[in-house]
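Entry for protoporphyrin IX containing FE complex. Fields follow.
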Amino acid sequence: MLAAKSLLPIQSLVPLSIFLFLASLTWTTSNSRSSNNTPPGPVSIPIFGNWLQVGNDLNHRFLTSMANKYGSVFLLRLGARNLVVVSDPKLASEVLHTQGVEFGSRPRNVVFDIFTGNGQDMVFTVYGEHWRKMRRIMTLPFFTNKVVQQYRETWEEEMDAVVEDLRGNKRAQEEGMVIRRRLQLMLYNIMYRMMFDARFESESDPLFLQATRFNSERSRLAQSFEYNYGDFIPILRPFLRGYLNKCRDLQSRRLAFFNNNYVEKRRKVMATNGDRNKLRCAVDHILEAEKNGEISSENVIYIVENINVAAIETTLWSMEWAIAELVNHPTVQAKLRGEIADVLGEEPVTESNLHKLPYLQAVVKETLRLHSPIPLLVPHMNLEEAKLGGYTIPKGSKVVVNAWWLANNPEWWDKPEEFRPERFLKEEMDVDAVVGGKVDFRFMPFGVGRRSCPGIILALPILGLIVGKLVRNFELVPPPGVDKIDVSEKGGQFSLHIATHSVIAFRPIAA
Ligand code: HEM
């Protein structure tokens, strides 16, 4: 059993000892699970459930080890919350596809309630009318091929600017640099141009500094395990007051930042231009929906908040992983450069020629397979009691699909721990990562079904483009004196990124 101290702040220890005493009086046995036919799992105690045994960090690797013990669907009781973990492609297809409606809702927690205004957004809202409306309204301005065609040149422009900066940066070429910050600026520009027709001048642009600070603090507070105790055990919630106030304070300043600097500006532009105005960027479409009475002004701001989180961080993490793996696998890198040279000759890497580069696409897929940024997908929830794999899933359970394990289980993949893009051109050549492609429930870094990632249509070309452009222009190597880039992971409630932002040296290749 884990030390309670590591799970709780010190001030909670007195009430905790009282609970522990109460709990020790009445251990429930695993028989109680079989009597109500819920999935197997460790024996739980009242009030705490399994929390003291399993701890806070319920990451994809830990949940895999539990699946090996309890099976492909198991249940953990975390205080007042039930967590159901699915680790098998057939059951995953039940949750995401066959019973997609039943399991199509989202659980929230005390912190996500604050960051989503109790589900006024799209990503974390319950399955129902509001979600359907939000997803429909967001699709046209963000998630269609027309959007890709409209913006691909601006993406390429932002990426070519990164290449130019690196070509002019002797230090990055010789000693190396942390590339993350420059890629972050590039991605903010890609997304903010699409969203608001706005961009940041440089990494020291005051608005860029504010936006990145607000968003990273939001992610830190939301993805931390620090607040689990108050979320799982309602009676401990008063101890969480300080944390929740910090979240509320951040959220109100952050939303005001988006509103005052971006949304209001677009409102003014639209009001001034009147009918002559053509809808220039995504938020103009969203404001039009607000004007038509379809959504509220709060919904508008939560759409902006969702894109800031869902679009930028996931894509940035994937870029960092891809680059790190290419540095650690120089043969893969050389082969990729060879493909680009053979297929494109002097032509630049552009969105319109990505389809001619199968090895580049395999590199992107292999990165997402080995390092899924959302390894457990965004948690799902059943609004009503449901059946899964012959078990009863209690109403309101948090249901996670261990997508990382489905993509890394040696029973289903040849040497899954190896970074080997070739697998997607050989034994796994039928496994797609394309919009509307054939679904393989072993490989779904973007999820599948109703709540799957609509951003896949943007993320895949953006990833392919930046990786292709960097490899074409530079030899990516570790900094002097370093052999391998550290690719250890750091996870949160459901996020996964590289633990140490890599220093990479970019040796220019003669144009
Ligand atoms: C490499 C990049 C990305 C990865 C790996 C990724 C992954 C995911 C995953 C796993 C989900 C949850 C699926 C589920 O619960 O079944 C999701 C949801 C979502 N993603 Fe992405 N995503 C990426 C990029 C993007 C981008 C670029 C955008 C927007 C421009 C975006 C917008 C969303 C939204 C709005 C949802 C919520 C969908 C819903 O609840 O209906 N994502 N993403």
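NOTE: Residues 241-273 form the longest helix (33 residues).
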